[in-house]
Amino acid sequence: MGELFSRLSEQTSRLVRSEIELAKAELSRKAKAGAIGAGLLAGAALFGFFAFGVLITTVILALSLVLDAWLAALIVAVVLLVVAGVLALLGKKSLDKGVPPKPERTAENVKQDVQAVKEGFRS
Predict the structure, then answer these.
(1) How many domains does the chain have?
(2) First to last CA, the chain
(3) Residues 9 and 57 in one domain
(4) pLDDT tens, 59-82?
(5) Pick from 37, 63, 89: which residue ends a domain?
(6) Where are the transmembrane segments (predicted)?
C-alpha cells in the first residue's frame, strides 16, 4: 500500500511538472506572437502619423491656392488646436470620473456584510 501511494505521489508530481512546462511553452509562444503584434501596431501607428502629417500639408497647400500660404497654415493650425483642446477636455472629464479609482459599490457591500455579521453575533 505504501508503494502504491509513493508511485501515485511520484506520478502526480511528474504530471504537475509536465503541465507546468506545457503552460510555460504555450505562454512563451503567445507572448512572442503578442510582441510581434504590438510591434506591427506600433509600425502602423508611425506610418499613420506620417500620413496625417502629409494630409495636413495637403490641406495647407490646397488652401494656399485661394489664400496666402501663411494664412492657410494659420487656419489649419487653429483648427488642429481647437480639436486638440476639445479632445483634451473630453479626456480630462473622462479621467475625472475614474479618479481616484475606488470600488465604491464593493466598499458599500463590505460595510453591509460587516453590519450583517455584527447583527448575527448580537442575536
Answers:
(1) 2
(2) 51
(3) yes
(4) 999 999 999 999 999 999 999 999
(5) 63
(6) 38-63, 69-90
Joined together, the cell numbers standing for residue 100 give 481616484
Instruction: Supply the angle between the helices 69-98 and 2-63 in degrees, to the nearest 10.
Output: 150
Query: What pLDDT sits at residue 4?
Result: 77
The C-alpha cell at 112 is: 453591509
- The owner of cell 477636455 is 89
Read off the pTM. Answer: 0.58
Strand locations in the chain (E): none
Dihedral class, residue 82 (left if φ above 0, else alpha if ψ from -120 to 50, else beta): alpha
Tens digits of per-residue pLDDT, 7-24?
878 888 888 888 888 888
Q: Is the peptide bond before 101 cis (omega within 30 degrees of 0)?
A: no
